[in-house]
Q: What sequence folds into this?
């Protein structure tokens, strides 16, 4: 399932705002490990959600237009 975090939306790429990403993997622990590694590599990254499959990603993108650039 989606572990979406709530966030304020605004103009991306300005004012030092970090990169917003989605993570999709069918393995729960792989998703969590990847999210941890990404945040360790760049603390300005915001994990918008993690998903079990691509269908969930598409559903998220349809429900939240404009939050993520693909």
A:
């Amino acid at each position: 399932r989606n572990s979406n975090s709530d966030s304020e939306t605004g103009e991306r790429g300005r004012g030092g705002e970090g990169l917003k990403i989605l993570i999709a993997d069918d393995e729960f622990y792989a998703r969590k490990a990847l999210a941890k590694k990404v945040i360790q590599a760049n603390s300005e990254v915001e994990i918008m959600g993690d998903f079990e499959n691509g269908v969930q990603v598409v559903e998220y993108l349809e429900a939240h237009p404009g939050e993520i650039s693909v």
